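User: quick one
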Amino acid sequence: MTETAYPKTQPLESPLYGLEARRVSAWFGKHKVLERVTLDMPPGSVTALIGPSGCGKSTFLRILNRMHEMIPGAQLSGEVLLAGQDIYHASQRPQHVRSRIGMVFQKPNPFPTMSIYDNVLSGLRLAGIKVRDKDSLVESCLRRAGLWDEVRSRLSTPGGALSGGQQQRLCIARSLAVSPDVLLMDEPCSALDPTSTRRVEETIAEISSQVTIVIVTHNMQQAQRVSHYCAFFLAGAGEPGGIVESGTTEQLFGDPHDPRTADYVHGRFG
Ligand SMILES: Nc1ncnc2c1ncn2[C@@H]1O[C@H](COP(=O)(O)OP(=O)(O)OP(=O)(O)O)[C@@H](O)[C@H]1O
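Assistant: Done. Structure below.
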C-alpha cells in the first residue's frame, strides 16, 4: 500500500472542534519527558504523531484527554484548548473531557463477555447518557466504524468472539457512540494483521470528516496514508521530547525542512 491508498476527505467546513496544545511540558516525578510542545490539531482532520520510541508521543496523547493525570507522580504544565477552552481549567470535569475526547488503544479492549450491541452502548452507560432509539444508534455507529455488514446478524454474540481487527472497529464504534469531538488513537493497528490494519485505516479515512482524529503511529506508510497533518517528535539523549517539525503530511514527507525529519521519514534512524 502507498500513501495514495485512501481518498482523504477534505478538512473541513463543519461545526467540528479541533485541539490546540500550547507550551505543554510533562513530568513523571522529577523526570521531564516533554518540553513546551505547541501543536494545532485542526477540526475534521487526522493529525499523526510520529517519532522514535520514548520521545513522548503517547504521553502527549494522554495529556490531550486528561489521562496523564491518572498516572501516579505525573504532572504537566501548559494548556490544551478544545473549542478555545482549556480542558485543564478548574471548571472542567475530567470525566466530561474524556467523553468529548475519546481514546482508542493499541490493544483492542471491548468487554469480552458483553454482546456486540451492548459494547457499542457501554460508553454511553458509563457517561450516564440516555438514548431513545438504541437500535438506530448501534447501527449507525457500527456502520460508521465499517463493521455493520460483518456483525448485523449476530449483535447478541460476545464482543470477545470477534477477530482482533473487528474488535478494534467495535472499540471505534463504542467511542463514536458518545459523539466525541475528538478521537485519540494510540497505535491502533500495531496489534493487527495487514488486512485488519487496512480496514481500520479505511474506517479512519471515513470518519475523519466527522470527528477530529489524532493518531500515534510508528508506521510511516500509515501516517502518509491516513493523515492530513503530521508532527515529528524527538528527544535527545537524557532530554525531554519535543516537536522538531510539524505541517501537512505532504510537506513533512515530501519536503521536510529539518534534516532530522528527513532522516526519520526516510527510515535512516528510529
Ligand atoms: N508511567 C510512566 N512512569 C514513568 N515514566 C514514564 C511512564 N510512561 C512513560 N514514561 C517515560 O516517558 C518518556 C516518554 O514515553 P512515551 O511512552 O510517551 O514515549 P513514546 O514516544 O510514546 O514511546 P513509544 O513509541 O515507545 O510508545 C519515556 O522516557 C518513558 O520512559
